[in-house]
# Entry
Amino acid sequence: MSETEHVETQVAPEVHVTHQAPLPAQADDLNTPVIAVVGFVSAILTFAIVMGLQAGYHQFANALRTEKVITTQTDQSAAVIAAQKATMNSYGWVDKQAGKVSLPIDRAMQLVVNEYSTKAK
# Structure
């Protein structure tokens, strides 16, 4: 062997090609379709949760408004209406010195009808 042959063997050793199984996925490989599906499902789920919370809030706010405003007005209105009915269905003095009295509404309507029916005759 000459010196050149020996150098060539050291520089270019024989390469043996063997068939190996493919390497498993490395940690830095990204599975883009799975990431896209997870992102899409997460966005839909977040939207649904936000809409559900908003609907619950509005339902609670309407119930609270009904309890505070409408029920309170109904109670106050009922008290006013009861006082007005008591006034309309009772006798009393409006102005005692002037001789003005308060009559129940049914009696007052009856007197007006009688008065106009006697005038029409």
Notes: Residues 32-88 form the longest helix (57 residues). The CA atoms of residues 31 and 76 lie 67 Å apart. Residues 91-121 form one domain.
